[in-house]
Amino acid sequence: MNGKDLISIRDLERKDIEGLFSLAEKMEGEIGGEKSPLKNRIIATLFFEPSTRTRLSFQAAAQRLGASVINFESVALTSMAKGETFVDTIKIVDGYADLLVIRHSLEGSARLAANVAKHPVANGGDGGNQHPTQTLIDLYTIRKVKKKLDGLCVHLVGDLKYARTMRSLLYGLGMFGADVTLVSPKGLEMDKGVVDEAKTLFSMKIKQTNELDLKGADVAYVCRIQKERFADPYEAEKLQKEFKITEEQLKGVKEDLVILHPLPKIDEIDPAIDNSKHATYFEQAKLGVPMRMAIIMKLLGRA
Amino acid sequence: MLKVEKIADGTVIDHIPAGKGLRVLQILNIQAGYLGRVALLMNTTSKKMGKKDIVKIADKHIDDKTADKIALIAPEASLNIIKNFEVIEKRQVKLRSKLVAVAACPNPNCITNHERMESEFKVEERGIRCSYCERLFKPEELSA
Predict the structure, then answer these.
(1) Is the dihedral of CA A210, A214, A218, A223 positive or negative?
(2) B55, B24 in Cβ contact below 8 A?
(3) How many Cβ atoms are within 10 Å of A223's Cβ, its own excluded?
(4) Same domain membership, residue A146 and residue A99
(5) Is residue A2 one of the residues assigned to a domain?
(6) Is A154 helix (H, G, I), strand (E, B) or coil?
(7) Which of A105, A112, A196 has its CB closest to that of B132?
(8) In Å, how far is A238's CA from the nearest CA of chain B?
(9) Which of A131, A246, B103, B127 could be disulfide-bonded to B142 (CB atoms 3.0-4.6 Å)?
(10) Do A147 and A278 reside in the same domain of the chain?
(11) Contacts of B110 in chain A (CB under 8 A)
(12) E strand or H helix at B66, and its extent?
């Protein structure tokens, strides 16, 4: 890994990610065990905007390793509400904790925190930019279930324009030699620059379509339409209905198709699919803990 | 043919793409009320470029940060430093691999536009990337 922090998937090389896969596998075996390798260590989870899974799974990961967790209940209860700058807040917490996990709505906030803090920083999502720990969990889940990443046919489905998860995942899949089909409603296609960059960097095969068809896919990674980005909620609702994964959509797909989702899912996947053999998103969320345990151990120089 | 008088000391910025000369003046912070001597030649003929703009400015030397800003809009511009009516140095502007505090990040949601800090960009083959929000921009977007 490039340096002490985990800020962007761009900072990682394939060997770094493979190292984290091995470490996460080891961590899976240690969940619930007696070992507390990070006893007396303190991890600060600074979530300047709401999050359930990322915050809770980082906190669960830290506690599984024996570390203590500090955090604030909400930004409204911090000195930032009195006008303290982001940089000052980071410097203060850097004096309290051994590792900082940060989520913030502004893009580049985690990079700035890493530049300011002496202790390692993990990016828990910075605006529409990066969410590297989610990408690592996604890649780890696919590799665990499918036993490989190279040559897999992965469909990225949904709002590819605004979902940061999809951009980072495309990058990660390219690094591991997967073939990708980008499936989005018209107007919500992935930024051309991001697609061109992935093609150039990894010589990867990328197809793009506006038709929701999962036949031939090994993995379908679904994300929600970000309704809050639409001026007209009805328009967003209409697109979501057209792009909903239903039992009908799963007719004729591969037997071993795996459906993933970064969650929260709202109504982009029919709940009837939750109990099907294809639904793997709850397993994916669960794997967030061992992967984040691996990340914490790595950043604290314990692996 | 237009004749522009020589300057004893100052800088001649040559090989500016036609139409970009006014932007160069903006970068140099030369506006109404500026008291020094300045000449702007627009759409003058050039063997190399067909048409080009030239800015001639007395008693002013261009620092590295300003040269970086000019390079964003006029990557082939050359700076001729004049002393005692002679060109004592001629150098081409060049986009450096890292640009610090040269322009604000065009992404309004970038942290650099919200904290008291300097912007930073890395020059890549396909464009100029903000070191913070990681967005890729065209050079002209940065100078807008």
Answers:
(1) positive
(2) yes
(3) 23
(4) no
(5) no
(6) strand
(7) A112
(8) 28
(9) B103
(10) yes
(11) 106-108
(12) helix B64-73
Q: Write down the pLDDT at residue B129.
A: 96
The reply to whether A104 and A196 lie within a common domain is no
Helix (H) or strand (E) holding A97: none
What pairing do the DSSP bridges indicate for beta strands B120-124 and B127-130? antiparallel
The answer to whether the Cβ–Cβ distance between B115 and A111 falls below 8 Å is no
Nearest chain A CA: its distance from B98 CA (Å): 16
Give every CB contact of residue A217 below 8 A, 6+ residues apart in sequence: A153, A154, A155, A181, A253, A254, A257
Residue B11 backbone phi and psi in degrees, to 5: -140, 140
What contacts A255, CB < 8 A, 6 or more positions away? none
Amino acid symbol at B70? I
Q: What is the pLDDT of residue A93?
A: 97
Q: Which pLDDT score, from 0 to 100, does residue A3 have?
A: 57
| A247 and A140 within one domain | yes
* Domain count for chain A: 2
pTM of model > 0.95: no
Asked if residue A1 is part of any domain, the answer here is no
In 3D space, the residue among A114, A123, A130 whose CA is nearest the CA of residue A45 turns out to be A123
Least Cα separation, residue B130 to chain A (angstroms): 9
Residue A256 in any domain: the answer is yes
Residues A222, A270 within the same domain: yes
> Any idea which residue has 């690094």 for tokens?
A175
Residue B136 to residue A127, Cβ atoms within 8 A: no
CB contact under 8 A, A107 and B109: yes
Instruction: Give the integer Cα–Cα distance in Å for B135 and B140.
Output: 14
Residue with tokens 């065990």: A33
Helix A132-146 / helix A53-64 crossing angle, nearest 10 deg? 70
Question: Is A4 a member of any domain?
Answer: no
- For residue A279, give its domain range: 132-285
Could you give the ipTM of this predicted complex? 0.90
DSSP label at residue A191: P
Rg of chain B over all Cα atoms, to the nearest angstrom? 16
> What is the C-alpha to C-alpha distance for residues B4 and B40, in angstroms, rounded to an integer?
9
Which CATH number characterizes residue A171's domain? 3.40.50.1370
- Residues of B in CB contact (< 8 Å) with A are 107, 109-112, 114-117, 126-127, 130-136
A146 and A255 share one domain: yes
Report angle CA A81, A85, A91 to the nearest 5 degrees. Answer: 115
Distance from CA of A131 to the nearest CA of B (A): 12
pLDDT digit string (tens) for A60-86?
A: 999 999 999 999 877 776 777 778 899
Q: Are residues A154 and A250 in the same domain?
A: yes
Residue corresponding to tokens 């998103």: A281
- Tell me what pLDDT residue A32 has: 86
